[in-house]
Amino acid sequence: MNDPQNYRTALDNLPNLVFGAAPDGTVEYMNTRYVEYTGLPLDDLLGWNWGWVVHPADLPNSLDVWAATVRTGTPREVSQRMRRSDGEYRWFLARAEPVRDEDGRVVRWFGTCTDIDESKRLTDQLRGTRMLFRSLVERSPDGEVLVGSDGTVRYANPSAARLLGFTVEELSGTDLWGSVHPDDREAVSAWLERVMLAPGEHLTLVVRFVLRDGSVFVADVLGTNLLPDPDVRALAIQFRRDEAPAQ
């Protein structure tokens, strides 16, 4: 396996795009998969010409990162879009590692470009979905609250804070059930026990809250135990004003 040709054959069969560079960052080697992916002759990619296959919007940052990597001699990575032979751009994670001699000087760089397009697009899609969901919740006329198993408010939308007579900042971190009418606290405790025992189920209750000005706010409350959900880990509480007169 000490035959250089064997190493080259191994590198050519890796799923990653592999490159090698001189100490000053000049690219001197690319494996077969790199050339096949770009569809360009090897000579057109060596030196600093590899920049032609990087998306124009990503190229300035990629060049800055590579220059800093070579200047400092430290491993770095950067996400960039790279043009495929058919003209499509896909996201890659480019990493570079230095090879040093006995005196610690960088004598060569080796790097890989790993296709992360699917995971990147999925992450962006999920982020967009979460932002849309958050936007809808923020604008909902209903109170939307996430609370821990101890009742501590982890998140409250503006409607929840307004209905309960708080600002969002004031409500966050407090006990959601602390302002429940004394006569309703036993019923709330029993309802919470049912919610805790029925993950995923939607259970309702009518609750009176005593606001700071002494007025009473009657709410239709919907509770869902999402504590087992790793993306939530909270009780989801939704409430709206009950039109029946407060007693």
UniProtKB/TrEMBL annotation:
Against CDD domains, the record matches this protein to: PAS
What organism is recorded for this protein? Gemmata massiliana
Q: Give GO MF terms, alphabetically.
A: protein histidine kinase activity
Going by the UniProt record, its keywords in alphabetical order are: Kinase, Phosphoprotein, Transferase
This protein's record includes keyword Membrane: no
Q: Upper lineage ranks? A: Bacteria, Pseudomonadati, Planctomycetota, Planctomycetia, Gemmatales
Check the record and name the Pfam families matching this protein: PAS, PAS_3
User: What is the designated name of this protein?
Assistant: histidine kinase
Q: Which reaction does it catalyse?
A: ATP + protein L-histidine = ADP + protein N-phospho-L-histidine
Tell me which InterPro entries the record gives.
Answer: PAC, PAS, PAS-assoc_C, PAS-like_dom_sf, PAS_fold, PAS_fold_3, Sensor_kinase/Photoreceptor
- Tell me where in this chain the PAC domain is found: 76-128
Q: Which Gene3D superfamilies match?
A: PAS domain
Q: Which Gene Ontology terms describe the biological processes this protein takes part in?
A: regulation of DNA-templated transcription
Whether Transferase counts among this entry's keywords is yes
EC number of the protein: 2.7.13.3
**Record-annotated PAS domain positions:** 3-73, 129-199
